[in-house]
Amino acid sequence: MTEQPPAQSADLAFALALADLADGISLPRFRSADLRVDTKPDRTFVTDADTAVERAIRTLIESERPNDGFLGEESGRADRGERRWIVDPIDGTSNFLRGVPNWGTLIALEEDGEVSVGVVSAPALGARWWAETGTGAWGLQDGADPRRLRVSGVERLEDASLSFQSIEQWDQAGYLDPLIALSRAVWRDRAYGDMWAYMALAEGLVDIVAEFDVKPYDLAALAPIVREAGGTFTDICGSSSVWGGSSLATNGLLHDATVRVVEAARQD
After folding, report:
1. Domain 10-148, CATH
2. What's the confidence (pLDDT) of residue 208?
3. Domain locations in the chain?
4. I need a surface site. Which of 6, 53, 142, 161 has the fewest CB within 10 A?
5. Which helix (H) or strand (E) holds 141?
6. Which CATH code is given to the segment(s) 157-267?
């Protein structure tokens, strides 16, 4: 018998409604001939879809959850109270503007400094993933019934699949040698990129994901999904916060071994 997701809390239901709202804005703009693309001061791209999605999400949050705070990639921070919604309107903007379907909206709820709800919606892939602390991680593809997500049971680095995301990130962070050491320690290394690598980890398809130069809105929605699927999600130094500027997500069984390889290579 297929396992069914538990009844949704009001917060999770609201997060999923926000994802529906985002999909209805972003998907029609994907591969559109008149997509407007600008360059931000940090030299990253932003499209009219990014700003429209974030504006719509923020407006609905302010209307339906007026006592909650908000942190969005495009509009910044507006803190109120002990609860805060953290949103990346389009994670994978470079993919979006090039017509690559690996992009999605990331929606998270942080309560008292801990992320409790995460939703990742990737409409161009026909996929969505979500989790709330204590209720498991779930996903669906092309409208099929939700299925519970579980990380892999791989126990040895030499059998593991690693997504390192970007050589440039590791190099600029001063971690190029650890990346090379990890690539030699694992069975397979690829750069799947952006949110999809973490969702592949939660589905048991990848065993280790790590990257640098990431902000809370890049990671907040991902962390509860990985953790509720049975994995471990920290920064590269082992802190469970999503505010450390780096990430290391594993199936849990490989976390300590991965950290040891990274630390040993840093010391050489």
Report:
1. 3.30.540.10
2. 98
3. 10-148, 157-267
4. 142
5. strand 137-141
6. 3.40.190.80
